[in-house]
Amino acid sequence: MVLPWNRSDDEPSETTSDRRRRRRSARNRTQDARDQSNQRSGERKRQRIAMTVGTILIMAIAAIVAVGYYREFYNPPRVTAGAIRGEKFSMGDLVERIRVVQGINRYQGGKVDLSVVPFKYLQGLLNAEILRQASPSIGIYVTKENVDAAIKGRFYPVAPAGQETDPGQLDLEFESNYQNFLTQVNLSDDVYRRIVEEGLQRQQLALFLARDIPASMEQVEIEWIRLEFDGPVQADDVKVRLESEDFQQVAADVNASGGFADSDGYVGWVPEGAFPDFDKLLFSTDEGSAILEVGGISDPQFTGEDGIFIIHKLSDLEEKELSRLMLYKLTMEMVEGWQETQLTQGSHDGWLEINFDSDRYAWVADQVRLTAPRVPKPPTQNQGMPIRGGG
């Protein structure tokens, strides 16, 4: 150890300038440390801000996706489309019913017209529920045995005449036919039985209402030409042809049969009420009404869904016995009238609710298009009665 009194005179003493340099160096090191600390603090702050902004953006995106999913997928099927005295039908129920009818129609080689079907089948669901609730009061009862018999009639194999058959084998073929149908149209047995039950209830309602139809009525004899709205033949062109050609000949060329006229357009004797769209034209006695005279040919008559009609009146009113076809048509009109009356009354009394607009209509149509079943038309040799869809 070098003590002050032992220090040699040769050893240099610390000068004031050295001390100043040392202090400046210490201050510089302190400032550098402070700057580095501030820089690290700033970086951490920027990282926290970035993480906060990122979290907010992620949450915003997740919220947008969640809202979109809720609006597009979760909520629409659960929205009430209609209700009868508290018995609700959701948009999902409506889509499911249309898919069922779509599958059945494709199984039969037909198709579903999505331009009219959604609201039509919503009304079908409501009408079926109204009838289900009203059935006991008008004496309509459909049993499990009734449903079993109806299903068996539609799918039980028909053996060729004169051929010996084994009942057990026929029962097995029936089960195979029925299960194959359910599989192809993606239906459960319970759902299809409900549809069959609704159909049987409508049949019993028709029988109930048909009791008031007389055996004979005043009728007029007509023939007509029916054209499709989107068909290749224009009504004005047909009218021009009728100025110089025979009505039946033109009808044979262009008539699009709707099931009530033969190939030449002949319909036969028609009572008032069978075709309500034409009642004023054929039966009206009001002054000023443009009733069609015997031998006259009408202007094109545009109906709601049935097409365009040009009518030729062959005979005036005569009392005639109703044909089976006209009895059927009158009965169907009475059923529709009963349903319309119930819907109107339900709306007035407040026990009917319909919640259906253009947006929901479009959503239903889109859902049905996306899930349209691809069902091959089956061979018909083993089929019994034709299959009729519900709704």
Number of domain units: 3
Number of strands: 7
Structural class: alpha+beta
Please give the share of residues in helix. 40-55%
Please give the radius of gyration in angstroms: 41 Å
Strand order of the largest sheet: 4-3-6-5
Shape: elongated
Strand content range: 5-15%
Distance between the termini: 114 Å
Can you tell me the residue ranges where pLDDT is under 50 for at least 5 consecutive residues? 378-391
Mean pLDDT: 83
How does the major sheet shape up?
A: 4 strands, antiparallel
What is the element string, with H for helices and E for strands? HEEHHHHHEHHEHEEHEH
Counting copies of identical and different chains, the oligomeric state is single chain
Helix/strand layout:
Elements: H1 16-74, E1 80-84, E2 87-90, H2 91-107, H3 117-134, H4 144-155, H5 167-184, H6 189-210, E3 216-227, H7 235-242, H8 247-254, E4 266-271, H9 279-283, E5 301-302, E6 308-321, H10 324-349, E7 352-354, H11 358-370
Antiparallel strand pairs: 1-2, 1-7, 3-4, 3-6, 5-6
Helix pairs in contact: 2-3, 2-11, 4-6, 6-10
